[in-house]
Write a structure and sequence with these properties.
The structure is a single chain. This protein is an all-alpha fold and 237 residues long. Helix content is 68%, strand content 0%. The chain is globular, with a radius of gyration of 19 Å.
């Protein structure tokens, strides 16, 4: 971990709230440990350090060392700081191919091993990349979709849930969901439920048809999430 990452880690600890750490550690049931620093505070810290130390003007090898050092940490907030660094300083400034390669390595090296880190990565970084219109992003997610590693496969689909262009990706959503819903892991299936819930705002028949086709692979949890807005419209419990 380089000196810039070490400084951020120290500051994250200083700004931590033990009660917040206790809540998250209990909620995540040991999947990953927390120090108790919220995302707004992490974002604020990164902006402060960038103003005072010019982080985004450092040579790229030092910036990559900073981000990789944070992501290698075993603590959740350090990983979230790496994700927010990319969102704040690299998105739109660095090539998507570079970012996707870096992130792919994180999954390969198992630096990402829980749903919290995976989903924040999707929402903060991968969703804007999907919305950039870069077809290379979709092709990369297609490869991830079949990856044996659960969290990499989940990250192929979750970015579409918050996408501003979700309606343009029906074929990818159907194809990726078809693969994930057949997997046994709970968090492969719940990715499908989350995305189908959001897509149902545009096309209920698409979602109903998908669930009908995959009924033997669909859990009650997936069905409840996917049909949330449909059930509200019908005023079902």
């Amino acid at each position: 971990m380089n000196q810039y990452a070490e400084t951020l880690v120290h500051e994250l600890k200083v700004r931590s709230v033990p009660q917040k750490a206790d809540w998250w550690n209990s909620y995540m049931k040991g999947e990953i440990r927390f120090v108790g620093t919220g995302i707004p505070e992490i974002r604020k810290l990164l902006k402060e350090k960038n103003r005072s130390e010019g982080l985004d003007q450092l040579p790229m090898n030092q910036q990559v060392g900073l981000v990789n050092g944070l992501m290698r940490s075993k603590l959740a907030e350090h990983k979230l700081a790496a994700i927010l660094y990319i969102q704040l300083f690299w998105l739109g400034n660095q090539k998507n191919s570079f970012l996707l390669s870096l992130i792919s390595d994180w999954f390969t090296d198992r630096y990402i091993h829980d749903w919290n880190t995976t989903d924040w990565l999707c929402v903060k970084v991968l969703t804007p990349m999907v919305d950039s219109g870069d077809e290379q992003v979709i092709w990369t997610l297609k490869r991830w979709n079949r990856d044996p590693y659960l969290w990499k496969a989940r990250a192929s689909l979750v970015p579409f849930a918050r996408s501003k262009s979700i309606g343009d990706h029906s074929k990818s959503i159907e194809r990726f969901s078809d693969i994930l819903i057949r997997r046994e892991e709970r968090f492969a299936k719940t990715a499908v439920g989350w995305v189908m819930r959001e897509y149902s705002k545009l096309d209920e028949d698409f979602v109903l048809g998908f669930l009908s086709k995959h009924v033997k692979h669909t859990t009650w949890e997936v069905k409840r999430n996917a049909l949330k807005y449909y059930r509200q419209k019908l005023k079902l419990p």
